[in-house]
Design goal:
single chain; 88 residues; mainly alpha; 1 helix; rod-shaped
Length: 88
Amino acid sequence: MTTNLATKQDLLLIKQDMLLGKQDLQAVIQGVRQELQHVEQQMTTRFDALDIRVSLMLQNLESRIVVKLGALMTVLFGLAGAVLALVR
């Protein structure tokens, strides 16, 4: 008659398989952690570069606005001077 009861050797083999599976899982988790750290470093670098580019674009736009406002003020002062000269 056959039995369905596990022997001590069967239980030891199951325990060994579980330990190996746990070690494999820990190795996969460690690999995922390292990959996430690498991605985080890449994203930080890209965000820093993007921040610098946006800052430079804003400075460029500010410079253009200041130049245009200066030109507009010059034109308006010239126009005001011409109007005053005509009024006198």
